[in-house]
Design goal:
Length: 251
Amino acid sequence: MRNARSVDHENQDKATLSDRVYDKMANAIIQGEFAPGARLIETELARRFKVSRGPLREAMRRLDEHRLIVRTARQGARITDLSAEVLQEIATVRELLESAACRFAALNMTDQEIAELQAIVDADSELVATGQTYYRQEHRLDLHFCIVRGARNSIIESILGKQLYPLIRMYRYQHRMVEGRAENALKEHKAIVDAISHRDGELAELLMTRHLANSRKLLLQAISAHPGDRSGYLTHDNQDISQSGTDEVKV
């Protein structure tokens, strides 16, 4: 009979494996490797990721919880197909929370953390100057997440970091960047960081509200102009995720 320690160790191993599967699947979905509405087949996914059904189902439960996939009783699990209406809902909540976080960050961030914000803006400026995109996935290098973290509010950080930002990245991969937006967004970022560095919470909040409103407007315009555009995705709308052939994603 197994003792309690061996059972605990086994449960920890399953949790770790489930976390790895979740991370790999989430990144693949967010980065557009699978088309909206693509069907998920558990047996194929278990074979692909070389895991048992237990850790896989736990990973899929979390994907469903974070709205990256949709599970129904009759149709099984599919990749989320985000609409303009859902974007409106996401953007509304984001603007409220992130603008408030910006005000808190101006009061709570250390001088070193503010210097790190400036370093991110400087690095982004170099990328934009060479015609490259500066949007990053890594939380530690993303200006918005660093500001949210600097607000010192764990609830806001959790909602934005775990619930909303992954969905926002899905929209960005799905729809092309509006020409000239990178330059304008960078200017807005610089103004926000400047307000934070001067500890002007009210101005920082106002500038972030305007910045996010501009982003929302342009993304909605892109969706409206190309409602059926799936150019950011590597697979076809009707195919199964198990047949996508995107073998770069490994555990």
